Amino acid sequence: MVKFSKQLQAQLIPEWKDAFVNYWQLKKHVKKVKLSRISKLSQTTAYNHDYGLSMFDPVRSFFSRLSCNATDDQPAGQILQVKNTLSEPEPDEAEDETELVDHLYSEEDEVKVFFEKLDEELDKVNQFYSNKESEFLERGEMLNKQLQILLDLQQVLDCRRRSRRLNSSGFLRSYSSSARNSDSDGFDHFLHVETPTEFGESLGEQTDDVISALEKNGINLVGSAKSKKAAGKMGMRIDIPATTPTRTITAVTSMLWEDLVNNPKKEGGGGEFLNRKKLQCAEKMIRGAFVELYRGLGLLKTYSSLNMVAFVKILKKFDKVSNQQSSTTYLKAVKRSHFISSDKVVRLMDEVESSFTKHFAKDDRKKAMKFLRPRQHKDSHMVTFFVGLFTGSFVTLFTVYAILAHISGMFSPGTETDYVETIYPVFSMFALLSLHIFMYGCNLFLWKATRINYHFIFEFQAATALKYRDAFLICTCMMTAVVSAMVLHLILVSNGFSHTQVDTIPGILLLIFIGLLVCPLNMLYRPTRYCFLRVIRNIVFSPLYKVLMVDFFMADQLTSQIPLLRHMESTACYFLAGSFKTHEYQTCKSGKLYRELAYVISFAPYYWRAMQCARRWFDECDVNHLANLGKYVSAMVAAGARLTYARQETHLWLIIVLVTSLIATIYQLYWDFVKDWGLLDSKSKNLWLRDELVLKKRGFYYIAIALNFVLRVAWVETVLQFKVGLFESRLLEFCLASLEVIRRGHWNYYRLENEHLNNVGRFRAVKTVPLPFRETDSDG
């Protein structure tokens, strides 16, 4: 049977861990009570044995225990009070406090300390629950108001469509915001509704009712009978986040136009139509806010139940140790506490379910529950079986390949050029990709083991998110297929098949993997594949897309995969230029276009990441993002200098490489340790680390700092320029690229650990979804 302490550790909300009852500390106090009792009994026994042992000692011990138990039933002088400041007393109770009598241990401090700690934990739980309950109730009230505005506007649009059919003149316009809102991520629309003039009687009455409802919510209506009276009222804006290129360009051009002209649009001016598409965006935002609210309420409900069980367990332990029955009396106080007696959370959950089912699921409860309570797939043992199977296959095939390559002499000086230039770019590309997926699988395993909520940080859906077993399965399958292709290619080459036919095997393998990546069928982790493609799209078109955590995290991965991108360039040139037929490798080595593309590919990941920093600075107005942008600019300069030095080995370029690389490395190391990992805090209680650590042993962090430092200076190899053969140089390049991938996987864990601790420090377990409608002064 699993201990409750382990169950609590596995089920508690990681971001709210500090707000839970400290079950482990209370267990220590119970243990101290037990030790004090044993000590007292031992002293009593020793006193009785001062004059030697007696055959009547067991009888004396039995009667002494009876007398102790009899004493336990009698009230004593000291009274320990349980303060229940946030509880809601029942009508027949005249007091808010429950008095517990400390009978046997009136002279012992341990029992008193235990109940004092218990009171502190109860107050802490009540206070946190009350704060979160108020926060969610406020969210629910605001969401209901937003939903009502949305429904009213949708009804007005329906009325407008029907009025057009009746050849009426009513229409709905929206006006651009007169000034940029620094707190908004998108662009605003000031809502004005021009009332139709010719409706049918029923349509006119319906529109008047809707207009009245809108005016109650603060929307200024132009053209209605009350428009003059509403001139000084608060209006309403719709904020649609600039998450797509179209919205971003519209927001920027609108802001620049208003800043240049310095003459914002006034009421009655022209504007773009507020169409159904904009309301669909608003509806999507409100639906997401309802889902997050429901999730937060579920977490708060779990928080309440787990704490209640913890109090029950710890009081039972105390009763067992002290031979008292104080748990029944104390539990009455716990049950009257606010976090147990309040039913506001349950009622709000029911209201959210009802509203969501009615307005977002068309009264289909089953469909609504797919959004509100998504099912989590359990780990399958078949995945583990296939991981082991493909791992064994990969090891066997790689051993066979090494033996065949040695026997056939493929890496001998006479034949190594053709073979290495054919095989190395494609298969090393797959090897680096598989290694990165393997490191990501290790990250997933460690994040899960240390209770780091990466699903919440990356905003992944728990039902479709990749698990560490799945990541291991993908990388082993990929490497098994790649090594199988290498063995097949080697066998065909050794048996004298035409190079023109045989050398198409790497290209066919590449096309197969690309086809699987974009396959539209719901198989082979389609949600993960499409999520990956969507993130890559957001990165490539930076800064037009809003930057999320998963976007810049993936962009950081690409900065460690520049060798892979260079191999993709070589592979594309090899097949598109027809080098696999002619074996003229200089076409892709000395061509002007190829050499220029090498700079573009080396700069691209740093450029994308710099543009993401610029976009985040634009959205959040945080100067730290500009400083982070400078880091990637310095990395771009250093990469360009090293690439030029590889082609022009002069003393001038050597000095430029040393200076630029040294500056970029110091910049990167500082940002890694201080900003990304949150370490090197001189005032921390953990020497040069930080106050809060997920890993129990501090040595891991010191090793991580040293390892990251060593792997960050791997660029020294480009300066040393070892004189080795073609195969050895390619092997050295692959090893250095693999070390950078390993460094990135090692960096990933501590980066997300720091992000998780930031969420824990702010008790942030529920995402804040921006709402579309907000009040603003209609006068400007």
What's the SSE blueprint?
Blueprint: H1 4-11, H2 23-48, H3 57-72, E1 79-83, E2 97-101, H4 109-165, E3 171-176, E4 186-194, H5 201-216, E5 234-241, H6 245-261, H7 276-322, H8 327-335, H9 338-341, H10 344-360, H11 365-372, H12 381-408, H13 416-449, H14 454-458, H15 468-494, H16 499-502, H17 505-517, H18 526-540, H19 549-559, H20 562-576, H21 579-582, H22 586-589, H23 592-620, H24 623-647, H25 651-676, H26 699-712, H27 716-720, H28 726-761, E6 773-777
Antiparallel strand pairs: 1-2, 3-4, 4-5, 5-6
3D structure, described in words:
The relative contact order is 0.09. With about 775 residues, the chain is mostly helical. The radius of gyration is 34 Å and the shape is globular. It is about 65% helix and about 5% strand. The strands form two sheets. The protein has a four-stranded antiparallel beta sheet. Strands 1-2 form a two-stranded antiparallel ribbon. The chain has 28 helices and six strands. It comes from Cynara cardunculus var. scolymus. It is a multi-pass membrane protein. Belongs to the SYG1 (TC 2.A.94) family. It is found in: Membrane.
